[in-house]
Amino acid sequence: MTLGIVAALHEEIADLLAEMAPGAHVEHIGMRDYHVGTLHGHDCVIVLARIGKVAAAATTTALIHRFNVDEIVFTGLAGGLAHGLSAGDVVIADTFVQHDMDASPLFPRYEIPLLGRAAFDTTPALRDALAQATREWLADEMAAQVSSTLRDELQMTTPRVHIGQIASGDRFVSSAQEVDRLRAALPEALAVEMEGAAVAQVCHEYGIPFAVMRTLSDAADDDAHIDFARFLRDVASHYSHGILRRFLTAKPA
């Protein structure tokens, strides 16, 4: 059983790469480095997909065709869409939709042409295991990994796990107007990012189990400015490393 671990930004996988057992090797394919080895007792391929749906789809396809992965987990950042979410919360996807897919009037808005569906489900067993690992890490380790000063700044008193829909698109959502539009169009979506729905579609077409976790760097109803680079370095990197370590440690060999 081989697990593919994917992220869009280097900081989200750097610590996992450092933990790979001796004997790991790198294969360079399509301008990406695929790190092949063992991590916490599991055969893994770790790769930086880069940002955007095309990059994510290309990387996912290579993982399936070249490395014969049996499962895929994507980790990274997202922006909150639903009211009541906070920076430092984690969204575990149960479905994905492409918020910038619009082939109307030939097909209904958001529907993927010829697949007859707009939403793609994650794999329940992987999703539940990832959610459990997240809950445990937030309860047991988060406070020791993320500085109290930063937690106070972000009001990260009790970060929570949410399971629900994530919307993906090739557009960085940063304005209140865009957030309001997405909330109205996709009321079930909890968060927005730029890769997950592409991974979901490829995995659906190839029958590969997958799950996605997203750490929220900001809440859509919060006017405070977030230093993205600082959040990535001092919060999200710890989340990805700690949660996936828990996930792998609990995962049957």
Brief summary of the model shown:
The chain has 253 residues and is an alpha/beta fold. The chain has helices at residues 14-19, 53-65, 124-140, 142-145, 148-154, 176-185, 196-206, 228-250, and strands spanning 2-7, 25-29, 32-39, 42-48, 71-80, 90-98, 120-121, 161-168, 189-193, 210-218.
Using only C-alpha atoms, the radius of gyration works out to: 17 Å
Topology-level CATH name of the domain at 76-250: Rossmann fold
**Low-confidence residue ranges:** none
Order of helices and strands: EHEEEHEEEHHHEHEHEH
Question: What strand order characterises the main sheet?
Answer: 5-9-8-6-10
Percent of residues in helices comes to 25-40%
CATH H-level homologous superfamily name of the domain at 76-250:
Nucleoside phosphorylase domain
> Cα distance, first to last residue?
8 Å
Q: What's the rounded overall pLDDT mean?
A: 94
Topology, number of strands: 10
Number of helices: 8
* CATH architecture type of the domain at 76-250: 3-Layer(aba) Sandwich
Q: Tell me the structural class.
A: alpha/beta
Q: Just give the CATH class of the domain at 76-250.
A: Alpha Beta
Please state the overall shape, judged from the principal axes of the Cα atoms.
globular
Pfam family, one: PNP_UDP_1
InterPro entries: MTA_SAH_Nsdase (IPR010049), Nucleoside_phosphorylase_d (IPR000845), Nucleoside_phosphorylase_sf (IPR035994)
GO molecular function, one term: adenosylhomocysteine nucleosidase activity
EC number: 3.2.2.9
